[in-house]
Design a protein that fits this description.
homooctamer, alpha/beta, Rossmann fold, 5-stranded parallel sheet, 11 helices, about 40% helix, globular
C-alpha cells in the first residue's frame, strides 16, 4: 500500500468515517482471492503491469478452469498459461473458455485481447530442435506487447548464417538467445550488440549435455558483457524479461 | 561494417580511388590492435557504446599496464579493471597510470572521466558479507552512467527491513539483487516490482552452499517473473546489465 | 531392556524360577515378528509412542496385506501406509482391510481409530503443485494427533498472501513449510516465528531444479534460525516431526 | 505488529492523540537500526524470544565491534557470535567487550548473563573429530537455556558404546546427532527414541566424503522416523532448534 | 599361458614335433571363440575357476541363445545370466535351453549342475525393498558353491532385529550387506564381525537418494574396518566376491 | 570467401561489370538457404569437404523430408541422418527419398553414392552392448571414404582378446575406441599404438555409471598419450574425426 | 558377548556366586574405556581379531598420546595410527612412545611387536605418484600379519609391465590395486586372476579427475568379476581387507 | 613382439641356437627397466615413435633426476617433463642435467636435440589467461616436430579477431583450441575448417566454471563436426595429438 493511500485511510479514521476496527481489517485485507488450492493475486497488475500468469504443469483441468474463470470475472485479459499439455487445453476449450493454443510452445492464451506491438525484440535460436522454447519466448513477448523478430537456426557452427543477420541484431532493444548443447550463441551475439541479451539454455542434446547443464554453465560463464541467464527451457521467463526491457521508456 | 560504409568503400574502387587490392586489405583489416598476448578491440565502443573492460584476474602487472596504456593512447577513458588484486593496483599506479582503486570490490578505474549519472538503478544485498559483490555491481553501473541506490543487509529472514524500502524498489528502472546462502532475495524483490531484476548469487556460505551453487540454483528456479541470473560473484556483469537496461530510451 | 526388567529376569534365575538357558533365550529373544520378507517391530510403540509405519513403495500387494493383517492382529491401529499406489490400495480394500485412502497424498490409513487432535501445527505450501506433499504432511500430523492449519499457495513471489496469515504462523507450535523451485518459503516463515520450522523441498520445478535439488540446497542454507530439512517430497517425515514437537509437554 | 497494537495505534489516531502523519510514520518505521553495513533487528526478541545472533565469518573486527556495541546499548545480553576466528575474538576483547570465547567451537559469547538451564537436550557425536561442531551445538543450547548432556565418540562401528547410553537418550526432549563420514548415527539414535533428532553432518572425512556430502545425503535419506537435517557443520543451527523444541510447553 | 605349458610348447618345437609356424599360430591363437557380436572366453575357467557370466541387459534373445549354446557345447555348466528380463528368459526356454529363472533377482541359470555348498556366507539386507538385489547376491554365491544364510529386513532403525542375529554374523566367513537410503547397515555389521563385508548400495529410496548415490557414498565412507563396496544394485558382483572369499583355503 | 574470390569480385566492380550495389549484395549474400525452420549450409562442402549432416533427433518427418529434398536438389549426395528413429526412416522412404537405414546405429543414408574406401581406420568396442555406438562410428567413417576394420567385444577384462588383434591396431591410421562402464579400453589401446585414438564413452552400464559419466571421466583422465574424447554415445562424431585423420595426406 | 560366556555368567548367578545386581552390572558394563574425548574399544580384539586403529587426522598430540598410552596399558601392541602428520609423530616420540613412522604412507606403528607374515597379498599400483597410498596398504597388511609383494608402476598404458608380473598375481590370495586418473588397473588385474581384488582409487590426477572421482567411478563400474572398492586414498582400508581375506582358513 | 621376430626366435630354438628355456625367458622379458619406484618403458619409441614423457607432478627431485638420467643413458633425447615446478627444474639443472625450462607452460625439456619442424599446427586460445595451457600445447607439438602457428586472444566475444585469422586456420593440418569459461572457441573454429580440432578446456574462470567443468561440457557438446576433447588444462595431451595428426602421411 502506497503512502498516499495509507494516509487517506488513516485520515478517514481520524475523521470518523471509518472505525479503527474497519481500518485494521482493511490493512490486513490481502489483495488476493482464495480458491482453496490457489490464491489469485488480483493486485499483481498494479505491481507488475501485467496479469497473473498460470504455470500449467501439474495442475488439473478443474483447477485451471477455476483459475481462468475467476481471473476473467475479475477483469483479466490475455491470461497466459505456460506448459499447458494439449489435452488440458482441450478441456479448457470444452469448458467454454476462449483459448488460443500454441502447440509447439505448449502455451495457451485465454481471453485474448489485441495489444499493440512496439519496440524491437529479437529471439534467436541455435538449432531447429530449440524451436519450441524459442517460440515460447517470442509468443510471450508478443502477447505482452513487444514487436518480435525471429532468427532461427543461426548456431555458431555456421557463423555466416548469424553474421548475415547482424543488422536485425544491432537494431534490437532486447535479445533472447536460445541454445542447447554447448550454448555458445548468447556469447557470440552479445559480442556484436549493446542491448541486454537474455540467454535461455535448452535441454536439447544428449550424453554430457545432462538435460541442459552444459548450455546453462556455458551461458553463466559467458565472456561477453550483457548476458544474463534464465532456467533451462524457460522461454516464458526470457520473453517476459525481454519485453520488460523493451518497454522501458526514457527516464523522466 | 555497416552497409553504408561498405557501399562507400566499393564505390571508391569503382571510381578508381582505391585499387581492388587495397579494398581487399581494408575489408580484411580487423579493427583491433595486437599486443601479442592480447588483442585490444578498439571498435567495441561502436558495437557496445562502452570501452573494453579488462578482466584483471591472472594477468601480470606488465600485461595490465600495457593494455591500459594502449587503450588510453587510443582514446579510451573510464577503463574498468575487474578482479584487480591490491598489489597489481599498486603496480599500475607506480607505472604512472591514473587509477582509482576500490578495494572491497577489487575494482580499478583508470583514466577516470566524470560521467553524468541518470535513471535509477537499485543494488540490494542480503547480508553484510555480500557487500564486495554488491559494491562491484554498484560501482560498475555508476561508472557507466547510472544513478545507483544501495539497499544493503535486507535479507529475507527479516522481511520488514526489505519492506521498509519498497518505494525505492518500485521506482527503480533496473534492480541488482545480490545474495548468497539460500539466494531468496531476488524472488522476493521481483514479486514487488515490474522492472527486470538481475540476480547475483554469491559464494558466501559454507557446507552445502558449495561455493554459491545453492544460491545460483535458487535464483535460476525463481518462481517470480522478471529474474535473470549472472555467474556467482559476478557483480560487474550485473552492474553492466542493469545500466544497459537503465539507459534504454523510449522506442522511436 | 530396561535395568528394572533385567534385574527381575536375573532374580528369577537366582530364585530358580528360570533356568539359565531360558534366561539366555529371553535375553536374546527379539521383540519382533518375522514374516520372512519383513520383521515387524511390535515394540516400536514402546520406543516411539507410535505404531509402525509402512513404506508402501516397491512392496507387493500380498506383502502389504500380510504386514497390515499381522500388525492389526497384534493390536495396532491407525496404521499409516505411505507412497501407496491407488491400485495397491484397491487390493487392500478387496482383501477386507478397513482402509481410508487419500489419493493426492498417496497415503493409506488402515484400521483408523479416532485420535483427539490437540496443539497447533501449521502446514504451509508455496504453490498449488506442492499440494500432494503438503497434504501428506498434514494428514500424518492429524492421524498422529495434532491439530493442523493448512496455508496453501503462499509462495514468496506474492508476499502479502503470506503476511496476511502471520497470526496463524505465530500461534503455531511447529510449522511444516513445503516448497519446490527456489525453496525460499521456510526462510521467510522462520524469520517471522519462534517455533521450529521443518522444511520440505519438493521435486516441483523443471530444468535446473534437478528433481528438488535447488529447493533442498536453499533450505539447508537458510539464513533464518530454526529451519531443519527432510528429504525431497518427504511430507510424511515432516508431519511426523511436527507432531513430535507439537506433543512435547512442559518439562517436569 | 500484532492486531492489538495496531488497533491501539489506530485508536490513538481516532482520538486525536496521534496525527495520521505520525501514524503512517510509525507504521512504516521499521524496528531495526541501520549501521550502513548492517541493519540490526532489535525486534527479533519479540518474534523469536531470542536476541540476534551474529554470523562472524567474513565480517571485519570494526564491523563486529560496532554490531555488538549497538546491540548491548539496546539492551541485548548473551549475544552469540558464531564462526568467530580467534584473532577477531582478541580484537573484541581489546575493544573492551566482555566476551567469553570457546575456541574449539569458534563461538563467542558477549555480555553473558546467566540463564537457568532446564529440560533435557542430548548432543551426541560419532567421532573425536566431530567435537568442534558438537560443542557449537551444545554451547548454543546451553546459552539459550537448555540443560545439555554430551555423549561423544559413540559412532555406529562400536554399537555397545552407544547402547550403554540408551537411558540418557530415552530421557531427552530433543537430540542433536553429529556425524561425518557415513553419517549413520542419527538413524540409529532415532530408532531408539521418540523425541525429534536434529542431524548435523560434518565435513569430517576424506575422499568420497566430499566435504560432508556423504553424511548429508545419508541423513536426508534416514530410514528412521523423526530425523531432520541442518547444513554441514551447522552446530549452531542444530543447538538452536534443539533448544526451541526443548522449551516447548504443554499446549494450553 | 603358464610357464610350464610354454616350455612344453617350445620343447615340441625343439624336438621337431611342431614347426615354428605352428608354434607361432598356437601362441597367437586366443583361447576365445568369435561369434561376431561377442567373443566367448573359454579359458576363463582356468583363470578364474568359474565359467563366463553373461550380462543380460541390452542383449537380444538370438544373441543370448547363441552365447549360451556355444558355451554349453564347449562344456560350460551353471551358466549365469544376470539382469535377464522375463521375456528374454521365456525366449531361451522356448529355444530349448534348460533354464531356471529367478524372477525377483532377474537371474537365469542355464544348464544347472548341482554344486556342493560349503562354508558360510551371510547376505543381510536393510529393507523389504532391497530383496531383489539381496537375492541376486545370495543366488550367485549359492550357484558358485557357497552355503548362504539370508538375514533380511534388519535395517539400522530397529537395531534389536540385527543384534538378535549376531551369532550368524559372527560365524560367517564373508558377509554381503545390502542397503538403500542411508546405507548404514554395512558399517554397523562390520563393527560386529572380523570377516570382510561386501557392501551393496541399492537404488531404493527417493528424493536425495539420487538413484543410490546416498547409500554408495555412505558405504565408501564407512568408519568401520573391513567394508568394501560394489556398484549400486550389483548383487551379482557382491555374491561373486563373497564366494571368492568363502572358498579361500588355508595357505599351504 | 577466399581472398582470390574476393579480389575477383572487387575487380569486376572496378571494371564495371558489377555495380557496387550488386557487389554489396553478393558479399552480404550468405551461402545458405532458408527453409524457415532451418538454414541449409550449402557451402559447408567447401569449408569441410563433406556435405551437411542432419541431426535427426527431435525433428519432424516433414522437416526431415524438406531438408533432404532441398539438399538433394542442390546436388548433395551421401546425406547422413544421425539418431534417426525407425518410424521417421519409414516416412522418408514413403516420401520417395532413396534411403538406406542402419537400424542398430539409427543412421540413415540418403542419396547414397559409392565412395572409394581408403586408408585404415579401426573401430574397437569393449562389449556387445556398445555395438550400436561402434556401428555408428564405423558406418560414418565408411560413408565418408575410410576403410574400416571392426574389433568388437575386446574389453579389458579379457586382455588376450585385445592382444590377439595387436597387428590390426598397429597398422591403423586412426582408431575409434568405444566403451561404457569403466571406459578403460582407449587407455589400453593407446598404450599399444602411435596413431590418434578417439575415445567414445557409452551410456552402457547401471548404477554409478550415471549414463556414461564413469566412462567419460575415465577417458578424459587417460594416462596414455594420444587419447581425445567425444560426447557420450557420439559414434558419429568419432567416426567423422577418425576419417578426418585418416584422409590426411603427407604435407606438401 | 558370546552365548557361552553369557550362560556362564547366568550360571554363576544361579549358583549364587554372583548376585543379580553384579550380573546386571557386568552385562551393562561396556567393554570400553572413556577418556572424555574418546571411548577406547578394548573388546574389539575379540570381535575383530585386531587392535583398535587410530584415525590420526584431526586429533591433537595430547589426544593421540592419551589414546596410545591407555591402549598400551590395556595390553595393545602394534597400534596403527593412520594419516599421522610428521610433526604429530615427533610429539609421540618425544612423549616416550615407541613409534615407527613411515613418512610416505603417513602411518605410525606404536609398540611394535613382530608378527609372522604368512599367505600372499599383492599390492599393485599404476603410477609412481600412487606410491604413498600403495605403501599404506602394504604396511597395514604386513603389520597385521600378511606377506606382501609390491608391484609398483604397472599402469595399463604399458601393459607388458603388468603382464610380466602375471605369475605373482596368479599366486596371490588377495590383491590390492591402487590407481588414480582413469582407474583401469583393477579391471585389468581382475581379468587375470581368481582371488578378490580390492580397488583403491587415488586422488592423483588433475582437471576432470575431480579428486579421485574418475578413478572411483571407473572402479565401481568395473566389467571384471571380483572387484570391490574402498574410499579414495584409503590404503589402510584396502590393506585391512586384503589381510582379512588372506588369513581366511579352510572351512572346518 | 611382431610375428616376424617371433618366428625368428622360434626358428633359433628349432635350429638349436637357443634353448627352450632361453626362449621362454626372452618371451617373458619385458622391455622396461625397473627403478623400484618406476619402470622405464624403453620400447615405447617402437610403439609410439616418441620417447617416454615424464609427468612431473608429485615426483620428488631424486626420482625425476633418476628417471631422466637412466633414459638419457638408454639413448633418449628430447625428454619432456610436464607440470614441472620451477624448483624441481632448478634441482635437475643443479644435478647436471641439460634442461630448458619453459616457465609459463611449466614444461622442461631435457637433453634437447633439434628436430625439424614440418606440417602446420595451429594453437588458438580464447583469452590471455589461457596462455600457459596454450603454450604447453604449442611447445609439445614443436618439440615433437610440428611447425606451430600461435593465435592467442581470439575469443568468441570479439569474432572479428578470429575471422581475421581465417586463412591460417584453413591451412592448418590440425588445430588445438584452448578456452576456459564458456569454452565456445572450438565450436566456432571447427565450423570454419576441415581438419581435426583438439579442444582443451582450461580451469580459467570463477563461480560456476567449477574448475573448467563449464568449458569441458561445452566442448563435449559441440554442435560442430571434428571436435574432440582432452582433460582440463591438458595442453600437453592436445599438443601430442595435434602432432600425431600432423605427421600423418598419405596412405601407401
Amino acid at each position: 500500500m502506497e503512502t498516499a493511500n495509507l494516509l487517506d485511510l488513516l485520515r478517514q479514521i481520524q475523521s470518523g468515517r471509518l472505525t479503527p476496527e474497519e481500518g485494521a481489517l482493511r490493512l490486513r485485507q490481502a489483495p488476493f482471492e482464495d480458491l482453496g488450492y490457489a490464491k489469485i493475486d488480483h493486485h499483481r497488475w498494479l505491481r507488475q503491469s501485467a496479469g497473473e500468469v498460470i504455470f500449467g504443469l501439474g495442475k488439473t483441468s478443474p483447477q485451471l478452469i477455476g483459475l481462468v474463470e475467476r481471473m476473467a470475472v475479475a477483469g483479466s485479459r490475455n491470461i497466459i498459461i505456460t506448459r499447458l499439455p494439449a489435452d488440458r487445453a482441450d478441456d479448457l476449450v470444452a469448458a467454454g473458455i476462449p483459448l488460443t493454443y500454441h502447440e509447439s510452445a505448449r502455451l495457451g492464451l485465454a481471453w485474448a485481447d489485441p495489444v499493440p506491438q512496439t519496440g524491437a525484440v529479437v529471439v534467436a535460436s541455435a538449432g531447429t530442435s530449440d524451436l519450441p522454447v524459442a517460440e515460447e519466448a517470442a509468443l510471450t513477448a508478443e502477447i505482452l506487447g513487444s514487436q518480435v523478430t525471429r532468427l532461427y537456426d543461426v548456431g555458431v557452427a555456421g557463423l555466416h548464417r548469424l553474421l548475415a543477420q547482424q543488422e536485425a541484431l544491432i537494431q534490437a532493444r532486447a535479445i533472447v538467445a536460445v541454445a542447447g548443447m554447448e550454448g555458445a550463441l548468447p556469447s557470440v551475439i552479445a559480442g556484436l550488440v549493446a542491448c541486454p541479451v537474455v540467454a535461455v539454455p535448452t535441454s536439447i542434446g544428449y550424453g554430457a549435455s545432462w538435460g541442459g547443464l552444459s548450455a546453462l554453465l556455458a551461458m553463466l560463464n559467458s565472456c561477453a558483457n550483457g548476458v544474463s541467464v534464465v532456467n533451462i527451457d524457460n522461454g516464458f521467463g526470457a520473453g517476459w524479461i525481454a519485453h520488460s526491457v523493451n518497454r522501458t521508456e526514457s527516464p523522466r
